[in-house]
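Hi P.,

Sorry for the delay on this. The queue was packed all week, but I finally got your sequence through. Input first:
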Amino acid sequence: MTTASTEQPVRYGVAGKTERPLGRSIMRGMLNRCPHCGSGKLFRAFLKPVDHCAACGEAMHHQRSDDLPPYLVILVLGHVVVGGYMMTDMIWPLPLWLTLAIWAPITVLTALVSIQPIKGGVIGLQWALRLHGFGDQNDDHDDYDIPGRGRSS
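Then the structure:
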């Protein structure tokens, strides 16, 4: 005999705050849109995010997506390029100069095409998880002691 569960789904975060769906926020960021409203542009230049969304006014100036987007591009692109090179080299063995002439531009172009959507997705992730100032908290400095170091005043 099965019974219908009347339990509420598990919710994370602070009660009373608006819900920020993770997948939707990441997808909006990857589409160069504000993770909050989905209509304002996220970037004012190639990799420079706007300070505030023009449509809803959401602050974006405090985002910290410095190192994760290039790391993800290198991780994904490395697997795709090396796999592609190995598969084509098994079928058509080419001289080294021709291999470099083909795969170096593919690698650079794919990295340039993928870095902005990945950075937008990381900003959307930070917004959805309320990280680095997106949760209305002060994020000026970290307030913890580093073991082995004296606390400076």
